[in-house]
Design goal:
Layout lengths: L1 E5 L8 E5 L2 E10 L5 E7 L2 H9 L1 H18 L7 H13 L2 H7 L7 H6 L4 H5 L3 H4 L9 H14 L1
Antiparallel strand pairs: 1-2, 2-3, 3-4
Helix pairs in contact: 1-3, 2-3
Length: 155
């Protein structure tokens, strides 16, 4: 049996469920061969759950970091669960001074953060927490279209 314990307004932001008695982070990302959304899950701890519930910025950062792993899984491959679980502690429990340099060494989806209202200039300077200070649960993909257009013009 699956019980939803926590979900934000936007259904695509990873939500926390209890599945077979275990806490699990669930997200829909990518698509299968039939273009249906893929469902990925990974185990989390109570400490991770507490941060996800209380801190939108860290929740968004985690989502941004897990999305490339989901893309790498393709249309039918498994999520690299070991790599995904390795993101949990540094992003959710690390000090901001540790989290921002951590993002210099991993792949992450900047467009996801832009869609949530992140300040593009601050993102570019690696100031993730400041960039996400005005982030929202609701995605605005017109911000991403503008971001992509500006990047294209700069090239």
């Amino acid at each position: 049996m699956t019980e939803v314990l926590f979900s934000r307004e936007n259904g695509w932001i990873p939500r926390v469920i209890r599945e077979n008695g275990e806490l699990v982070l669930e997200l829909g990302a990518g698509a299968d061969a039939n273009h249906d959304p893929r469902r990925f899950t990974l185990p989390i701890s109570e400490a991770h759950f507490a941060v996800i519930r209380s801190d939108l910025v860290r929740h968004l950062l985690l989502w941004s970091a897990i999305l490339p792993l989901c893309a790498a899984a393709g249309i039918r491959g498994p999520l690299d669960e070991r790599a995904a679980v390795a993101l949990l502690d540094p992003i959710l429990l690390g000090a901001p001074a540790e989290v921002e340099p951590f993002f210099q060494d991993i792949r992450w989806d900047v467009r996801r953060l832009v869609a949530q209202g992140a300040d593009v200039e601050l993102l570019g300077r690696g100031r993730l927490f400041a960039a996400l200070g005005s982030a929202t649960e609701r995605s605005d993909w017109s911000l991403v279209q503008r971001y992509d257009a500006n990047r294209g013009r700069r090239r």
